[in-house]
């Protein structure tokens, strides 16, 4: 059963149906949010953890949702912030030089049974890992999610012009990287 954003918010807002509302929120958006996060953190177990943290944070802060965007846009914003924070913490926690961190994710792409895709797709994913996190995020939202720049702007709080420039630079870097291999 799918619920509208309004129905989910009503269920969460009522103390007697709060748990049902939370389950409806997760069921409605978990797959899409996981996909977004997975493209950023790459490793399945990490994506599961970040997805869980995203929904916990959303549930704890649902009263801050102002309905001036869709519930998905609000969740997306939380998911990207959680993903970027996770990547930053992981780098700091393990005192990894950035190259080692990306090398670990690249190795995961090459060896994990949880990563599907042909040679070209994996090559693209490896090229994406070389982009700065925020540039990779913009590329993922535009290329894989096919979100319009206006919606990406709402999610990221970045101007449309800056997003277009970021996407353009990402595409150029990917082209150079893919052609150099």
From TrEMBL:
RNA polymerase sigma factor 70 region 4 type domain boundaries: 123-174
Iron as UniProt keyword: no
All residue ranges annotated as the RNA polymerase sigma-70 region domain in the record: 25-93
InterPro entries: RNA_pol_sigma-70-like, RNA_pol_sigma-70_dom, RNA_pol_sigma70_ECF_CS, RNA_pol_sigma70_r2, RNA_pol_sigma70_r4_t2, RNA_pol_sigma_r2, RNA_pol_sigma_r3/r4-like, WH-like_DNA-bd_sf
Domain of life: Bacteria
Keyword Transcription regulation: yes
Keywords: DNA-binding, Sigma factor, Transcription, Transcription regulation
PANTHER family named among the record's database cross-references: RNA POLYMERASE ECF-TYPE SIGMA FACTO, RNA POLYMERASE SIGMA FACTOR
Similarity-based family: Belongs to the sigma-70 factor family. ECF subfamily.
Protein name: RNA polymerase sigma factor
Species per Swiss-Prot/TrEMBL record: Mariniradius sediminis
Source species taxonomy: Bacteria, Pseudomonadati, Bacteroidota, Cytophagia, Cytophagales
